[in-house]
Amino acid sequence: MKQEEIDKLNDELSKATPQEIIERMVNVFGRRIALSSSMGAEDQVLTDMLLKIDPQARVFTLDTGRLFPETYDLIDRTSRKYKINIEVFFPDYQRVQEMVNGKGINLFYESVENRKECCFLRKIEPLQRAFSTMDAWICGLRASQSVTRTNIHVVEWDANNKLVKVNPLANWSEEQVWDYIKANKVPYSVLHDKGFPSIGCQPCTRAIQPGEDVRAGRWWWENPDTKECGLHKR
Asked: Which of 39, 116, 160, 203 is most buried, judged by most C-beta within 10 A?
């Protein structure tokens, strides 16, 4: 898709609801679009919206091998509620094995470079395999989530992965996310009730304190401007 087409879609959808955005993009890309879910609150909202629009829509997630038990439970609960099979992509075990044996089981605490290597092998490479059958992907980014996401658009060209990226909740607040979850009885991780607004791998995620940024619990030992795994590199 050319940049002019993306700009036109952004203009068209500037005042659209997330459901209208999703429906429009499903109509554009058909079976070549999918929702990438980390099982967080935003992704659960999008799963509910997408499957109400298209019950056969594709939803996938990444199992890094270091997820919370609560995340696996939510994958199961979500699959049962919506009667779908959430596709699960795993990392290349040989490459992960080599990394861990060479640098240690918790190498990510040692340096940003180590952490990004771990994220690449456990998340980016499996994601790239998932993308091989897509022309566009839907994700739960919101502009107010962190300093690295303030300039996102509803529709973007993902130059790193060579496909269109759709952010239906780009302009939503956290309050809107939770209002939707409650109103529609959307299943969500119990970790959210324990102070985890953002949930990733277990060793790299902690609960936050009152007043902290919603992304403060992700890679908390790093500076705010490095707190991305590479999925949303800008």
From this structure: 39
